[in-house]
Amino acid sequence: MIKNDEQLVREFVGGNEDALEELVAKYLKPIYNFVYQLTRDTGVSEDITQDVFVRMWRSINSFDENKKFSTWIFAIAKNASLDWLKKKKAIPFAFFERLDGSNMLEYVEDESVVDADEILMLIDARKDIQELLALLPLGVQTILLLHHTQGFSLIEIAQIMGQSTNTTKSQYRRAILQLREKVVGENKDTAIVAPKNA
After folding, report:
1. Which of 46, 127, 158, 189 could cross-link with 168 by S-S, CB 3.0 to 4.6 Å?
2. C-beta separation of 22 from 8 below 8 A
């Protein structure tokens, strides 16, 4: 019988070391990939990933069983990555400041202009996706990476980021709009039409 994360956590807290090994085996690669996409440094990503599991081990008793383990451990990974980036002064502007200086927390009124799937398909076809993402504020990069590479819902990402779901949705829409401006600006012959039920 395959055990879910929460069962493994309960067993680990109860003293079963094998349960910890199962959790590490399951999350080692996804956590490393997520951290690497933020730091873009192999050695640093390995160190941070190790730190994530040390932090998990130390604070496992504080895990709320009513929440998903995956969102909890990715929140640890997000915090550990941001700690490193702040120490290295790798965050050159306010966490949620847009490139034009306006606040990322503004709400996007017209959702119909955003067709995330088509925009992300265009971006996926590009070789410089990391360069494109690097143009966005780090907090927004984090949301896009969690959603499109790790498969978290925006509700789960809000828990990881420690903010409201509405804020997360707004930031996600803003990020897609910014990427759309960049991609469409360079591919003027490419028409992007949003579905009417967006």
Report:
1. 158
2. yes
